[in-house]
Design goal:
Oligomer: heterodimer
Largest sheet of chain A: 9 strands, mixed
Order of helices and strands of chain B: EEEHEHEHEHEEEEEEEEHEHEHEHEH
Helix content of chain B: 25-40%
CATH topology of chain A: Rossmann fold
Structural class of chain A: alpha/beta
Radius of gyration of chain B: 21 Å
Strand order of the largest sheet of chain A: 9-8-7-10-6-1-4-5-11
Distance between the termini of chain A: 58 Å
CATH superfamily of the largest domain in chain B: HUPs
Shape of chain B: elongated
CATH topology of the largest domain in chain B: Rossmann fold
Strand content of chain B: 25-35%
CATH class of the largest domain in chain B: Alpha Beta
CATH architecture of the largest domain in chain B: 3-Layer(aba) Sandwich
Strand order of the largest sheet of chain B: 7-11-6-1-4-5-12
Strand content of chain A: 25-35%
CATH class of chain A: Alpha Beta
CATH architecture of chain A: 3-Layer(aba) Sandwich
Chain lengths: ~250, ~300
């Protein structure tokens, strides 16, 4: 079984997010960039399936600037077999990302595609579902447990009220939630080896997809700051404030 | 006239509160709103839905292939029905997030997730970077697909004396779909986390699942509150994941949020900072949670919480 894993290069989850001065975007100068945490989980799951003998090849794919090669090399160091970069300097919308991934899926014919449920930059939570629609594949989103028996994939997924278990026959799409697994770290020898693994670069405009944004960003602003609160010194004072000042109890 | 199709979330007992929050957003965009309810158990919710002011039509489809909210066939149906509508909406719950992007792709439309403010009929605000920034987006597509952040809109409550007509649909376009195996839903007598007026939330400082039961539960009972938890508490096994409040859990905005033993990691704050009144109880005076709290109390939660229960 061939598995395709989509990974995005995003601002590191532990970096401070600052809106730029002209309120058109987020400051990325001198900010650490990393693989989207949900995508690390997606790759880890693929690696575990390969270690169980259930997968023969893992391809990591990213769509982004030339620097996204670093994210792909990290994926190769973690154990992916080869990498594809669809190179673009544009900030593409999830629909376009899904259309590009669809093109590559048709070429590579993976049986399973695993993606993070969302990227921690735009928080859209759209790409996996959109790709599933374009391929007319079943989708098991927000996965917290995956088991595969022959062609049958069983996925436990996190829903608002608890947990739901679904199954599908390959091919299909899984998007990962946080509790699916704990990703490993790359070992130094593997980081060296990753440099010689194949990494194909495809120009985004050569895939026959209209990359033009359909949405226009008017502004990006920091959220309003909450007025500073007060410290109370006893339970009695707290109850008094909640009862007579805030009037919420 | 701008017409709107809203995918309602419901169960056998009726409409989910998230649907009513989404209806409030819908009413800001259209005065011709159709609610779509699918699944074998949708009749009761449809009757409820038809009574809400602002609902022009209700459509139901009882076919078994829509049971349990599975995305593939519901998305195919919604895409099939989309033609006359300007807006397609769903709540940004796990139900809506699972289905709506699939609808959007079937229609080749760019979707806007988690709309938290409607500025005009084609301009919307959405949180990005875990709520660390707010993005204002203009959408000039002829058809617009929007998921609604339910905590940003009040629940529609006004009823009408002339209920909307209910149409029963019979078509059921088929997609390659998952099969439902089972689900374990948390059964609770407390209010639902995302619609509760009061939330008592615990963090890692609670130290055990037992303390969630013996300290937080009685306090929640006293205030008729839902119980929430930080990701740290969930990861440590003190609370189930469906109680998680934060960027990767539930986004809440109750009247009163009491954070107990929660340090205030950015991803937790993203899930609760729009609460009306925030109380923080923590032994560390430097905890980040105090920066967003209206009332802070520094001290040992093991003493404070029992005292609070006794005096309330």
């Amino acid at each position: 079984m061939k598995i395709l894993v989509a990974v995005k290069r995003v601002i590191d989850p532990y970096a401070k997010i600052r809106v730029n001065a002209d309120q058109t975007g987020i400051e990325t100068h001198n900010v650490k960039l990393s693989m989207n945490p949900f995508d690390e989980i997606a790759l880890e799951e693929a690696l575990r399936l390969k270690e169980q003998g259930l997968a023969s090849e893992i391809i990591v794919i990213s769509i982004g600037p030339i620097q996204a090669q670093e994210t792909l090399r990290q994926g190769l160091a973690l154990g992916a077999d080869r990498a594809i970069l669809i190179q673009t300097d544009q900030d593409l919308e999830p629909l376009v990302i899904a259309q590009l991934l669809n093109r590559i899926s048709l070429r590579e014919a993976p049986q399973l595609i695993i993606l993070g449920k969302q990227a921690i930059d735009n928080d859209a939570n759209q790409t996996g579902q959109m790709l599933a629609a374009l391929l007319n594949w079943p989708q098991a989103t927000f996965a917290s447990k995956v088991t595969i028996d022959q062609q049958r994939v069983t996925v436990e997924r996190e829903i608002d009220g608890g947990l739901q278990t679904l199954a599908f026959d390959l091919p299909g799409i899984i998007t990962t939630d946080l509790r699916l697994n704990t990703p490993r770290f790359a070992k130094l020898p593997n980081i060296m080896k990753a440099k010689s693994k194949p990494l194909e670069i495809i120009a985004s405009e050569t895939l026959g997809i209209d990359l033009t944004p359909r949405l226009t960003t008017l502004s990006i602003k920091p959220p309003p700051i909450r007025p500073k609160g007060i410290l109370v010194h006893s339970v009695d004072e707290l109850i008094d404030k909640l009862r007579f000042e805030a009037k919420v109890i | 006239m701008k017409t709107l199709l809203l995918l309602a979330e419901h169960d056998q007992h009726g409409l989910k509160p998230a649907t009513l929050n989404t209806l409030t957003a819908a009413k800001q965009l259209s005065n011709n709103i159709t609610l779509l309810l699918v699944g074998p158990d949708s009749e009761r919710a449809a009757t409820q839905a038809s009574a809400y002011q602002g609902v022009t039509n209700v459509m139901i489809n009882n076919h078994a292939c829509y049971d349990h909210g599975l995305a593939e066939n519901i998305a195919a149906l919604m895409a099939d029905l989309a033609q006359p509508f300007t807006y397609l909406l769903a709540p940004a719950t796990t139900f809506g997030k699972n289905i709506l992007p699939r609808v959007s792709a079937l229609l080749t439309i760019a979707m806007i997730s988690d709309v938290c403010e409607i500025i005009d009929d084609n301009t919307f605000v959405q949180p990005i970077y875990a709520g660390n920034a707010l993005k204002t987006v203009r959408n000039l597509q002829a058809k617009q697909v929007l998921s609604i952040r339910t905590s940003a809109f009040t629940a529609a409550g006004e009823l009408t004396s002339t209920p909307a007509p209910i149409d029963v649909l019979t078509q059921h376009p088929q997609a390659r779909a998952c099969t439902f195996i089972n689900q374990q839903l948390t059964v609770s007598t407390r209010p639902e986390l995302t619609s509760a007026r009061v939330i008592i939330a615990g963090g890692r400082a609670l130290q055990s699942a037992d303390n969630f039961d013996t300290l937080l539960a009685p306090l929640a009972t006293k205030l008729n509150a839902a119980i929430g938890a930080s990701r740290a508490a969930v990861d440590a096994g003190f609370a189930p994941n469906d109680q998680q409040v934060g960027q990767t859990g539930k986004i809440v905005a109750p009247e009163l949020y009491i954070a107990i033993g929660i340090s205030g990691a950015i991803q937790h704050l993203a899930g609760m900072k729009d609460s009306n009144v925030i109380v923080a109880i923590n032994c560390d005076p430097d905890a980040a949670i105090f920066h967003c709290a209206d009332y802070g109390l520094v001290g040992d939660l093991h003493q404070i919480v029992p005292e609070l229960i006794e005096k309330l």
